[in-house]
Amino acid sequence: MHVEWATNRDFRDVRKIAGPAALSATDYTSKLSLIELPPGREIHYRVHYEDLASGVMSKPESGQFRIPAVKAQRPLRFVWSGDVCGQGFGINPKVGGMRLFKAMRSANPDLFVHCGDVIYADAPLRDRKGLDDGRVWHNIVIPEKTKVAETLPEFRGNFRYNLIDEHLRALQRDVPMVYTWDDHETKNNWWPGRVLRDRRYRVRQCDLLSARARQAFFEYTPIARRAEAPGRIFRRLSLGPLVDVFVLDARSARGANSRNRQEQPGPSTAFFGSEQLQWLSAELQSSNAVWKVIASPQPLCLQVAHARTDYDGVSNGASGRPRGREHEIAQLLQTLKKKRVRNVVWVTADVHYAAAHHYHPKRAGFKDFDPFWEFLAGPINAGTFGPNPHDMTFGPSVEFLGIPRSLRPGRSPLDGLQFYGMGEIDPTTNKLNMSLHNLEGKRLWSTTLDPDLMP
Hints:
The chain is α+β, with helices and mostly antiparallel strands. The chain has six helices and 21 strands.
């Protein structure tokens, strides 16, 4: 792998770097960290590969991205969404592929945050999917997508499948990407230690499946392996003085799904886990950025069912005092209030619709926290569901809902109910505008948050 980068489009100030070899051990993927990039500049780059046997060079792939300035001079914009190619909906060339990626790229963002379900490793595809209204959805299909993923090559194939889409490739080429994972990178509603009963699987240990999924995830996404924690997904990313992004992992340390109503916190009530929770609290307190954006794989107040009586998310359907996984959230919110950590907003996906939630202690069963916002967006080329029932432990109010309340579940992407969110920070006022957009990029709803008025 060879990388050239420059601050001029004509590459007259080019820097050349020899990167790693792309070998079969990593499915011929490679990544390179660029350091000492000049702040506030647009970076132009070219990447090409040299055949180790013959020395023949590949055709270069080129792109560009922006580096945040030390002192912001222009609005800073980020987008987010999640949940790609689920419920049997793959890449459909007859409708132009995964067009939500095109809409996000058209917004010219500085960053894309993927909130999880980057792939659906547990959702095989067929070339045709009949819909309940008589229409037909057409899929591109590759061998690795004809069954559930169990082997490392099959998990890798799921990531390669998404890259068939020209709009995803174009977004990746020109916009820095930040990824976390949720359940479908491995198996729906998995947790460490779970043993599957699903007859589609010969490998039924989720610990083994998730280890293979994690390896493919690190190979196919631009996430660095830290020497002290090579498989860790949660991390903090700075976009200069205006915003820090805190990327969370809600799968690797969670306890088993249950009725989620334990009266006391402990290992069985883990959602983010004690290590990540302590890290998040400390990092938020140390952040000097105006805005702290928490990218979470799952929303806080929505009931996400598992089986008939269990829950896969934070909420447990019993509004009132914190119980089960709500203990972790209560602890975090209480600490942020005590330490006066301000201007915290949450962005998330998972439930396959768009919404804006405002949390306030006046409406809540648990009172010891400052009001905050949570914004939902998604899916990307997957079925649309919802709206999910709410739990009032933390006092949410639905300020916007992007779908009809009478929505029939599993609506096709042909219905257009695919969503992304966008945040834009004004460098002169430091105000943050949060908006939700549809498949065509149309702004459906927005609100502007003033850091001087946030608690």
